[in-house]
Design brief:
It is a single chain. This protein is of the alpha+beta class and about 475 residues long. The chain has 18 helices and 23 strands. A hairpin with a 4-residue loop joins strand 7 and strand 8. The radius of gyration is 22 Å and the shape is globular. The N terminus and C terminus are likely disordered. Bound molecules: iron/sulfur cluster (SF4).
Length: about 475
Amino acid sequence: MLAEIRSLNEECGVFGIWGHENAAQITYYGLHALQHRGQEGAGIVTTDGRTLKPVKGEGLVNEVFTPEKLAKMGGTGAIGHVRYATAGGSGIENVQPLLFNSTTGGLAISHNGNLVNANHLREHLERQGSIFQTTSDTEVLAHLIKRSGYESFEEKIKNALSLLKGAFACAILTEEAMYIALDPHGLRPFSIGKLGDAWLVASETCAFDIVGAEFVRSVEPGEFIIIDKEGMRAERFAYPNDRSICTMEYVYFSRPDSDIDGINVHSARKRLGKQLAKEIQIDADVVTGVPDSSISAAIGYSEESGIPYELGLIKNRYVGRTFIQPSQDLREQGVKMKLSPVRQVVDGKRVIMVDDSIVRGTTSRRIVTLLKEAGATEVHVVISSPPIKNPCFYGIDTSTSGELIAANNTVEEMREQIGADSLTFLSVEGMVQNIGRTDPGSKCGHCLACFTGEYPTDIYPDTVLPHQKEVSQ
Ligand code: SF4
């Protein structure tokens, strides 16, 4: 589905490189590959060993950077970031990497995820005299590092990381080193790559492919990696907890050409579609998927059911960037601009429409209407994940419980509201088994909290949802 027209959004993407003479340019291409993870702002900070140089701005990667700006940055180490922000204000001050200068040296941080104890830590730091310039969780980490009583800089970072709770995949840059860390539950994907002698880190492996780098391994939960002129060293800032990777990375967020812990995202989605066809048999003439993220599952459904796959919906790629619209009417208009039914495919047909998820239900209702207006005699909606009934506190803007259609309605009520002839969700077991992870335990290394309500970390009373954080600015 299209990130701009729905209310299920990723917070951001992180990229870093150490030891390459074109560090800024390679980071630009890496961020380009991660653009689907955030379209509201982008930034790069480079180091030449003496100073940290930032360029950042609001907008898409190719709007923020020009070849001239990148050439002026120079340096052989860089970290970058693409950011998603909800309606209600973003602001250049929140665009990452955040850069902090002090007499003891500079520090830049790119962070993907959401901390569940950020408010608690922020209050504690403010009582000690810290003054915050942004509403970003990332600044909490910077203050913790600066205030840590440990001697060495590495111990300061490790100590600060050990105080964070929630989801965080971080790349930290100083004049002399790049540091990489992943939260002890491993909620977000984070991979290490190599390009010649240079080391890379990225939220998704598709960013390695675009720059010709090879995948080396995933960052492990609780791991702390130091990359400097001596090479790469792996340490820990925390013992790993049970792995709880965000399941929606496989279902919806990540690009189909990315691999997460050795599992290709397109292949996983195809298996989810096949499993759906095993769980529900529907008499229909054609299967179609909502572009882009549901195409793989639709192909899988078609292969398993024997019902032909057709391109029943196309995405208008030249609409340009549209911001998420705050009102329901404008959101629906957004769907109309971005998706068109292929009349010749659906006219007079019983259509199975595969989508990856339903959040508010607005988008599904609009697409069902589009297909029926184009002549579909029946529209059966099949969803390649279970109903989303609980908010996400780990960096995915799934809206509050009150806005989640599945939190407040039965499947039959939802079917009626979206105007479909039938509505089917994939089972939790079917989803987990078919993604194909083999971690020990019944969850096979997944976070399933938005489906089951079982959160892998404590949730603090003052934990702020990503959505609320933006609105409160
Ligand atoms: S709650 Fe859902 S969206 Fe959030 S990290 Fe867990 S699986 Fe992902």
